[in-house]
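Researcher: We're teaching a course module on how sequence relates to structure. For the next exercise, students receive a sequence and then see the predicted structure as tokens, so they can try to spot secondary structure elements on their own. Here is the exercise chain.
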Amino acid sequence: MITRRRWLLTCMGLGIAPLFACSRPPQAFQETIAVFGTLVKLTVYAQQPEQASRAFAAVNTRFQQIHHEWHAWEKGGLVSKINAAIAQGESIEVSEEVAQFIQRNQQLCRQTNGLFDPGIGKLIKLWGFQQNSYEHNRAPSAESLAEVLAYRASILDLHWQGNQLSSSNNKVALDFGASGKAYALDAATQTLTQEGIRQATVMIGGDIQVLGEKPDGPWRIGIKDPLNPNLAKASLSLASGEAACSSGTYERFYTDQGKKVSHIIHPHSGQPVTHLLHSTAIHHDALIAEVAALAQLIAGSEGWQSIAQNLGVKYSYLIDNDGRAFISTALNQRLH
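Model: And here is the predicted structure for the students to work with:
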């Protein structure tokens, strides 16, 4: 019969470290990265500080690359090059990964009946939201707005021949402000996984994606009350891989002649959205969660359920200007 002591000595002699002899709970490490015009907050659990530092550095490198390549008005970046080719009526070849991402955006535009449309960059620029500071902006004139709306520019005007992209409308200007954040969330979680991190959260603005669980249980998040930012309307736990993405009209805006101008622009009317304050969607696919949050907000209290159904989103939470909540049945069962 092998005693515990003899078994330990045997393991040591064979170079095998018994799990209970060397394992210890991982520690939490946090990092904040300034990128995408906001602060990205990372929390990872790692055995050693060096592992956390390597993971943070890898994510930061990936984020800087994404910011340069996917930023709508970053000169020399990928989106800038694509928009320049479209404006000149030329085609441009992109990588397989980029082609798949843009094609997914096209599909999601169809599924949301055009309420999510990254092809309206000229409309967003007209309202002054393609810049880092816009508190001194002024609303565009009715004439200039009518002119841009007449372009009827849409990401659906893009056409493909293999990975060669062209457009039937040279007024299309891509702006992946919403879906780009989801792209960054996925890139971050993939990078952390490659660095051996199994427990983490990535928070970009109002969006968060989680990996694994904390040592003491699931990750818990709160849905902020836009009328009282110090309070939460509700809280819930996220399962590993889930992304909770939010879109709102109460944080990024400017005031013109006493009227709030939200950065959420309705692709069809060309007007800033004002009928809801907040929208959250939860899904294991960060891109679907991000698109759902935005399209639900634009659709409003009467149309959000149709959008959620089209996208296969079960967990939705919306708040109107009076603070009333609209909650999907499935999410209501998860709330605390």
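Model: If you want an answer key for the exercise: The two ends are 52 Å apart (CA to CA). The first helix runs from residue 4 to 13.
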